[in-house]
Design goal:
18% strand; TIM Barrel
Length: 242
């Protein structure tokens, strides 16, 4: 089970919770075993940059990497092969520390079985690792959509806030469990309460079967809440595990 944040910036107000020396990533990696590279959504990074990040963190650390908006929002998964190839070539700089790829879809992108089957074929032709998808249109929360995700070994992320009840729990392929917590009620800002973290810890432990890797990423980073929430959840999970 991996708990972390969307990005590794150590907020000033939480700096005393981290080792004092080193870059933000070095300090972050002393407290967490995972991070989601979120800025890959907005701009590409050289393969050498990914290699440098991988060399900065300890063995056992892993990076989830968010797919570029070029693929998900501009092309909307249509004729995205060249953009996908470029992204995969860059991210492979992480080597053995490359974790899941994350595809966050635009809220307006409805499920289209034929179109998305074509994209997933292209994806799987070039990448055999773990993949999570965060759809944000109600049309994705159906058995047909779930079956397609299972066919291509793609996990549907469990998210908060959820647009429908089914969005709050993992779906699709069950070989990867991926939670994304954006902050609620104010997305990207709100800090989760102690009670909510306790509830989440119990949910994660109940989900854990010892087989599928579990990722839980806090994306409520705008006010620095992600860091303290992730540390709090880590402590609660440890308290509940035997």
């Amino acid at each position: 089970m991996r708990v972390g944040c969307a990005g590794w910036t150590v907020p000033t107000q939480h700096a005393p919770l981290f080792p004092p020396a080193g870059s933000h990533l070095e300090r972050y990696a002393q407290r967490f075993t995972a991070v989601e590279i979120n800025n890959s959504f907005r701009r590409p990074h050289r393969q050498s940059t990914y290699r440098r990040w991988a060399a900065t963190v300890p063995e056992g650390f892993a990076f989830a990497t968010k797919a570029p908006r070029t693929i998900t929002h501009d092309l909307r998964l249509v004729d995205a092969g060249p953009a996908l190839d470029a992204f995969l070539a860059q991210a492979r700089g992480l080597g053995a520390k490359l974790g899941p790829l994350l595809f966050q879809l635009p809220p307006s992108l409805a499920f289209d079985e034929s179109l998305h089957r074509s994209f997933f074929h292209t994806l799987r032709a070039g990448f055999d690792g773990n993949v999570a998808c965060e759809p944000r249109h109600r049309g994705w929360f159906t058995r047909r959509a779930d079956d397609l995700l299972k066919e291509f070994r793609i996990a549907r992320a469990a998210v908060d806030p959820a647009i429908v009840d089914a969005a709050a729990v993992p779906g699709g392929w069950d070989g990867l469990i991926y939670f994304r917590l954006h902050g609620s009620p104010r997305v990207y800002y709100s800090e989760y309460t102690e009670d909510r973290l306790e509830q989440l810890a119990r949910q994660l432990i109940a989900t854990c079967d010892g087989q599928a890797p579990i990722w839980c990423i806090f994306d409520n980073t705008a006010s620095g809440s992600a860091t303290v929430n992730a540390l709090g959840l880590q402590a609660r999970v440890r308290n509940h595990l035997p």
